Each structure stands twice: as structure tokens, then as C-alpha cells.
Amino acid sequence: MRVVLQRVQHASVKVEGEIIGQIKTGILALVGFEESDSQEDFDWMINKIIQLRIFPDEKGVMNVSLQDMEGEILVVSQFTLHALTKKGNRPSYIKSSPPQIAIQQYNQFLELLKSKYNHPIQTGEFGADMKVELLNDGPVTICIDSKNKE
């Protein structure tokens, strides 16, 4: 599982011109799945997302987690996070979970996240053509891969 976290002042996602999810201060999490991802990957990633200390404390040092500040999360599925770009100029997405598996993984991930984080969680729409707007704060952008946890 790969996630790109962006610390945001606000973010939103639109489908067909309509806002379907939006947050104020918090994290925009772009999430991508591969077939071998398991609940262990999801649990590990959720802990990283909510406990990573990327928000400033009173001295301006990144020492506060999303959980500490009770921030919001916007989760958007993005299969392109597993793009292979080594050969040629057209990315390959062969490592991304097929849609019928990825939607199950996405829903399982969201259910686990909601069970562990009791603050606002918004989402995009799986498989839709989405338009994501955000104001990255910092900027702070962090890439995390559950296959690199050891």
C-alpha cells in the first residue's frame, strides 16, 4: 500500500463539478493498493497517518500528530501511485490492484480508519474522474509505502 500524505489548510474533491468531500486543517491522503496488501498493511498505514508528527507545535516544530490536533482527513483512491516508469514514457500500472480487488481494499481500509479515528473523515469516489483541490501547508508532502516498514 502506498500513500501520499499532504498536510493541508483545506482540501476538497469534486465529481462531475460537485464537491463530494472536503476538509479544513488536516491531511489529504492519496491511497493506492496492490494485490498483496493485507489488513496488517492497512493497520500499519493507519497508525502512520494518524500518529505521524507533521503539524507544528507552539514553537513551530513539527511535533504534533493529526490525532493530537484532532484534524480532519480526506482519503482519495489513486491507483497511479503504483506506476512503473523505468521503461519508456508510458507508465505501467501492473502493480496496482485490479479495480474489483482495489475497491474491496479501499472500503476495508476506510472501515478500519473510521474505527480507529473518531474525527472527521471525508472521501472521494472510488473509480471516478475526480478533481482534487488543496492548499498544501508548508509545503509538507510525505510518501509512505507499507512494503518498506522494516
UniProtKB/TrEMBL annotation:
Offer an example of a GO molecular function term for this protein: hydrolase activity
Grouped into one coarse class, the protein's main location is cytoplasm
| Localisation per UniProt entry | Cytoplasm
- So what EC number does this one have? 3.1.1.96, 3.1.1.-
Q: Which SUPFAM superfamilies match?
A: DTD-like (SSF69500)
List the CDD domains hit by this protein, alphabetically. Dtyr_deacylase (cd00563)
Stated family:
Belongs to the DTD family.
Fill in the domain comment.
Answer: A Gly-cisPro motif from one monomer fits into the active site of the other monomer to allow specific chiral rejection of L-amino acids.
What interactions and quaternary structure are annotated? Homodimer.
Identify this protein by name. Answer: D-aminoacyl-tRNA deacylase
Q: Give the source species.
A: Moheibacter stercoris
